[in-house]
Amino acid sequence: MTMSEITENKPSQQPLIPMVLIAHALFLIVAFQTVQLVRDSGTLKDVRIGQEAMVQDSLKLCQQLETLAGSAAILAQDGNTAARAVVENMKRQGITLTPPAKQ
Fold first, then answer.
1. What residues have CB less than 8 Å from 74, skipping those under 6 apart?
2. DSSP one-letter code for 98
3. Is the dihedral of CA 63, 67, 68, 70 positive or negative?
4. What is the spatial distance between Cα 80 and Cα 61, in angstroms, rounded to a whole number?
5. What is the dihedral of CA 84, 87, 92, 98, to 10 degrees?
6. Do residues 98 and 70 lie in contact, with contact meaning Cβ atoms separated by under 8 Å?
């Protein structure tokens, strides 16, 4: 057996190197994306926590406005001319003030 026959029968390791490099690159890409997603998730949580007080304040304000609008509608039904003018003006602007439901 000659030297060329021995090297021809031996499986070549050259395809192994590109496969290892590709696998390593894919691992690095997945690891990088995972780190980025974890950081983004933490940032979004911080933003949400920072906005929570403003959301609670806006809900409180919305409830107060609904109470005020309901009171104006009740006064208008009872014959208060100023409240009736407010309700009519709001109606022209496309806002309907209705009294709260009786409980």
1. 99, 100
2. -
3. positive
4. 25
5. -130
6. yes
Q: Domain ranges for the chain, please list them.
A: 38-103
pTM over the 0.70 mark: no
Token code pair at residue 5: 């026959």
pLDDT at 4 over 90: no
Distance CA 11, CA 51 (A): 63
Task: Provide the pLDDT confidence category of residue 100 given band limits of 50, 70 and 90.
Answer: confident
Q: Under DSSP, is residue 103 helix (H, G, I), strand (E, B) or coil? A: coil
pLDDT in tens, 53-66: 999 999 999 999 98
Token reading at 52: 């929570």
CB 71 within 8 A of CB 97: no
Amino acid (one-letter) located at 40: D
